[in-house]
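User: Can you recover a sequence for this backbone? Please restate the input before giving your answer.

Assistant: Of course. Working from this structure:
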């Protein structure tokens, strides 16, 4: 009896220890946003209990939860090491997915965007298999942040909105707040400050309601940044100081560094240069302590602007070069291309798994059908042997035909997928070559011109000439991006084309102060029109060329672009009220000849009408 009692008590103590480690881990997660240091203390106690009982799952959870806290505190390398340890300890799929997600977050903050995306996709694959919607949405939201850092806002917003729809379905207010915050950053970068401020304040209200100290600090910092861009300096400083106070209290020194950077920028811009130096020094110190790539980059740029304001051009140029080198090391064309390739590989692998699953289902159904047929034939064997043989042959042939038909369908689907994949790879290779060679060379030209302007005191005429060359080169890069945009699409929708035209007109409107622009699309036009990439790009170039000619030569006060459907054709009319010209007396220049050549290449018709003092009208019909 004594021996049995001892075993029973030992077993109960063991179970209690397991539950104790699990309870401590869960309680630490509940409080880490409020008091991170207390959460670390509880997690270390849980780790000791789990190690004592050799419970690998709870050991891994303790380490991974510690990584989560250290990540939010800006200690990214410590967090990265702990998540890697957790990944190697247990093969529990949920723990592995959480570890991959944490590793992705750490690498994203350290500027290793390719590694970040690789780990996010691993986590996403596991959560999809487990149908864990909440964590799946968080990973999707994190992938959107990678694209935001890489300067691909359309892709970033696409991922953020996917995550938002899931969070709303689950009523996850913290997730919704994070999405609003991330989308607001994109709006701010694009210059839409009113939308950015509205989204940031929405996020701040949710964080206050949740009483999430770190979330409140981050949202307050973001609201301050928008007020700074809106030139509301006093409001910006109030929110920045609120953020610093909270970040310092919870021990998040990465957040402290980001807020100090913002305060320094505000002081420089408001001619309080002398006061800004101490904030830049502190921001640079905390950013290097946490190794936050974005904050190190911002601090170096602040140093350059500080010394430029102090008329110390030598120091300003030195820090600007350090900023450029550091930025190029974390964000480059090769990394962007690899990340795009990773996404394609992930989607391809996902489709292949779906095809394999469909094959398995088909085979299982066919096997079940075959067994039923044989069972029926067996019951009839004694009575109708001759009929049975005929029916058996008929059934087998019918089954074989069905199998052949389905196999042919699968083969056709696989061939189609492989063809599409090869075409996409070819497009990516060509666009990557354009980016790597021409894009890099043009960027080098701009950088070299900027270094000349910063590094040497040049005559005014030469400085203007360099500025014109830089602007021309920048325009060339934009046109190269337009070409790559078209190449990366197998089809271009009418909405894509409409958005591209609208953006070009907006830029022209800003640059041309004496010209009013009108852009009209008839309501009855078919919105779901699709063009091939070649046709879509040529249509866009024709409109662009027509507008440029009108701006440069027409001396017009009004330029209009009208799009409508008529006689089963898409009609695009670009007209102005300028000085016009006599078609019979003037030879067509390269611009108008290019318009005719492009229209001919895509099988469209174009007419050009112009009269002196009555303007010019170009009509394209597709």
């Amino acid at each position: 009896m004594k021996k049995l009692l001892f075993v029973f008590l030992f077993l109960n103590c063991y179970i209690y220890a397991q539950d104790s480690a699990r309870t401590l881990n869960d309680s630490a997660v509940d409080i880490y946003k409020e008091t991170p240091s207390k959460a670390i203390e509880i997690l270390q106690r849980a780790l000791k209990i789990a190690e004592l009982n050799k419970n690998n799952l709870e050991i891994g959870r303790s380490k991974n939860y510690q990584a989560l806290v250290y990540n939010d505190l800006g200690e990214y390398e410590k967090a990265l090491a702990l998540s890697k340890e957790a990944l190697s300890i247990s093969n529990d799929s949920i723990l592995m997915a959480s570890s991959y997600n944490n590793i992705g977050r750490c690498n994203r903050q350290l500027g290793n965007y390719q590694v970040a995306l690789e780990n996010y996709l691993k986590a996403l694959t596991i959560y999809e298999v487990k149908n864990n919607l909440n964590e799946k949405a968080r990973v999707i939201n994190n992938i959107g942040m990678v694209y935001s850092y890489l300067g691909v806002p359309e892709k970033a917003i696409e991922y953020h909105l996917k995550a938002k729809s899931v969070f709303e379905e689950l009523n996850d207010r913290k997730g919704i707040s994070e999405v609003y915050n991330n989308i607001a950053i994109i709006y701010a970068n694009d210059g839409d400050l009113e939308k950015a401020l509205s989204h940031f304040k929405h996020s701040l209200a949710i964080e206050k309601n949740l009483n999430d100290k770190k979330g409140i600090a981050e949202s307050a910092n973001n609201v301050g940044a928008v007020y700074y861009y809106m030139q509301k300096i006093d409001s910006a400083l109030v929110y920045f100081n609120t953020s610093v106070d909270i970040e310092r209290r919870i021990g998040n020194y990465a957040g402290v560094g980001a807020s100090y950077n913002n305060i320094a920028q505000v002081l420089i811009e408001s001619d309080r240069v002398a006061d800004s130096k101490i904030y830049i020094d502190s921001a640079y110190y905390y950013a290097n302590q946490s190794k936050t790539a974005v904050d190190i980059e911002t601090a170096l740029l602040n140093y350059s602007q500080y010394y430029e304001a102090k008329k110390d051009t030598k120091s300003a140029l030195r820090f600007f070069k350090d900023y450029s080198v550091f930025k190029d090391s974390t964000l480059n064309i090769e990394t962007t291309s690899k990340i795009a390739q990773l996404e394609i590989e992930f989607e391809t692998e996902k489709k292949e798994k779906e095809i394999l699953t469909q094959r398995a289902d088909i085979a299982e159904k066919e096997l079940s059908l075959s067994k039923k047929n044989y069972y029926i034939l067996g019951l009839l064997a004694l009575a109708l042997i001759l009929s049975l043989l005929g029916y058996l042959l008929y059934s087998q042939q019918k089954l074989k035909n069905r199998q052949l038909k389905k196999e042919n369908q699968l083969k056709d689907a696989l061939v189609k997928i492989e063809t599409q994949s090869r075409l996409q790879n070819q497009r990516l290779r060509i666009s990557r070559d354009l980016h790597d060679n021409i894009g890099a060379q043009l960027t080098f030209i701009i950088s070299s011109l900027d270094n000349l302007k910063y590094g040497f005191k040049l005559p005014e005429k030469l400085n203007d000439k360099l500025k014109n060359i830089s602007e021309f080169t920048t325009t060339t890069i934009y046109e190269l991006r337009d070409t790559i945009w078209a190449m990366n699409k197998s089809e271009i929708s009418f909405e894509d084309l409409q958005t591209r035209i609208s953006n070009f007109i907006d830029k022209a409107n800003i640059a041309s102060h004496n010209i009013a622009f009108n852009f009209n699309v008839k309501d009855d036009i078919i919105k779901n029109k699709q063009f091939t990439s070649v046709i879509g790009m040529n249509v866009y170039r024709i409109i662009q060329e027509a507008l440029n000619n009108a701006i440069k030569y027409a001396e017009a006060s009004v330029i209009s672009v009208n799009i409508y459907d008529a006689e089963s054709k898409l009609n695009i009319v670009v007209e102005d009220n300028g000085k016009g010209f006599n078609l019979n007396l003037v030879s067509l220049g390269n611009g108008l000849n290019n318009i005719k050549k492009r229209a001919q290449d895509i099988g469209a018709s174009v007419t050009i009408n112009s009269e002196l003092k009555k303007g010019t009208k170009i009509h394209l019909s597709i």
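That completes the design. DSSP finds 22 helices and seven strands in the chain.
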